[in-house]
Write a structure and sequence with these properties.
This protein has helices at about 20-35, 50-60, 70-80, 80-85, 100-105, 110-120, 155-165, 175-185, 245-255, and strands spanning about 10-15, 40-45, 65-70, 90-95, 125-135, 140-150, 150-155, 190-195, 200-210, 235-240, 265-270, 270-275, 280-285, 285-290, 295-305. By secondary structure, it is an alpha+beta fold. The strands form two sheets. Strands 5, 6, 7, 8, 9, 10, 11, 12, 13, 14 and 15 form an eleven-stranded antiparallel beta sheet that branches. The chain has a four-stranded parallel beta sheet with strand order 2-1-3-4, with helices on both faces. The mean pLDDT is about 90.
Amino acid sequence: MPAPAGAPIGVVVNPSSALGRGARVARGVLAALAAEGVPAVELSGADAESCRAAVRRACETGLRGLILVGGDGLIGLVIQLAEARALPIGIVPAGSGNDFARQFGLSPRPPRAVRRILAAEPSPRRVDLGVISLPDESAPSRAREHWFAGGCSVGFDAAINRRANAIRLPLGPLRYHLALLAELATLRSRPFTVVGDGGEHRFTGLLATAMNTRAIGGGIPLAPKAVTDDGRLDLVEVSHGSRLRVLSVLGLLARGRHERLPEVTITRVERIRIEAGPEVAYADGERVGRGPFDVRVAPGALALLA
């Protein structure tokens, strides 16, 4: 349903993003839109649920699009809403990791970002999203869906994400590097069962992660050749090795030089099932829940203003 004539753009801001940086950048975005003569309404909330509610209400009243001012977590929050996914979405990175924005070279500078967003309105870029189906923790016999823009992490990288989220200092991507060092101190392998078009296989290793974008954790190129409009996800699996060998693999992985290592397998998939016992998955920097995880790609599900 087209937006009514003169409908505003909704500017969604996470006021706590990077300890207040999101709110500061949002003021610049609103000023840049005003300078371009574009009506806008600021949408925010004290927590995730109130922010979602504000976005949902604004979508129902009529918006021409959304601009998200924040990091990967804000993107992950907003795309859970079907009403938001139905609108073209622009992004101004103002979070800690900004891996999705990095995929497209999006500017954090409000005037430049707004000009690019408005220029893309006549022809938004269609971008894939991922969808995880998993048990509802409040009612395990029932399944629920969780959408993601960047990746679905299961294993070592999810554990790093959990540690990074616990660091409340405004350190940007350094949070993930510190969390990586802490997780290395308790390095362990996990059992995985992966079911896909090629059948079922089991392995013991560090991670089984489905990526839509190239990078994770503030720029770590886990899937260096991932493409966001090919209708597929990159499944990255890292198998078990000695502690010394694992450290070597992780060093190469951090520099994007891990693709040909015998411990690493990267496969293009449309749909995959990951079973990892009690492991908790993270997506777009936020906790998703326990599996098993049925992960699929939703081709062209996002109209990106970029």
